[in-house]
Design brief:
Elements (H helix, E strand, L loop, with lengths): L2 H32 L5 H31 L2 H13 L1
Helix pairs in contact: 1-2, 1-3, 2-3
Length: about 90
């Protein structure tokens, strides 16, 4: 892992995040607004969405820690980061 690889991953993240996150968030909030029953259901749906995102983040960090402990980090971490960004 060298600085140019990290820079490439940073650029890929900066380009792909707005392309994915904006439509995803818009779609999510449009869906939530369809089921508004005095604000109760919409709050629950947003909480469930955040829980799902947190589970994904926690599991990816757990996989990263396992890869770092059980494999050669120099060869596998680059592929792991590429897979996460894709």
């Amino acid at each position: 892992m060298n600085p140019s690889t990290l820079l490439l991953f940073g650029i890929m993240d900066a380009v792909s995040r707005p392309v994915f996150d904006t439509p995803f968030n818009t779609l999510t909030y449009n869906y939530v607004s369809q089921f508004n029953q005095g604000g109760r259901i919409s709050t629950e749906l947003v909480v469930w969405r955040e829980c799902a995102l947190s589970v994904g983040r926690i599991s990816s960090v757990g996989i990263l820690v396992m890869l770092y402990k059980w494999t050669d980090p120099a060869s596998t971490l680059g592929w792991f980061m590429l897979g996460i960004f894709l």
